[in-house]
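User: Let's play a game. I give you a shape written as tokens, and you guess the letters that built it. Ready? Here's round one.
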């Protein structure tokens, strides 16, 4: 849960920082029952960044 408690420290102007947050959030949401496909989630995170106007909306 550190990922969510550190949301205030995320640099929402820095793409790498936002991608790391999205990856961490996704890792938590997948849980331990399912395999975490890091490459797939990374690709989805990058696609989301291209789609949104404000990176901080990815926290919602």
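Assistant: Ready! My guess for every position:
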């Amino acid at each position: 849960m550190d990922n969510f408690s550190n949301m205030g420290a995320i640099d929402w102007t820095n793409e790498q920082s936002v991608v790391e947050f999205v990856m961490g959030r996704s890792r938590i949401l997948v849980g331990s029952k399912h395999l975490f496909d890091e490459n797939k989630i990374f690709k989805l995170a990058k696609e989301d960044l291209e789609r949104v106007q404000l990176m901080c909306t990815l926290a919602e």
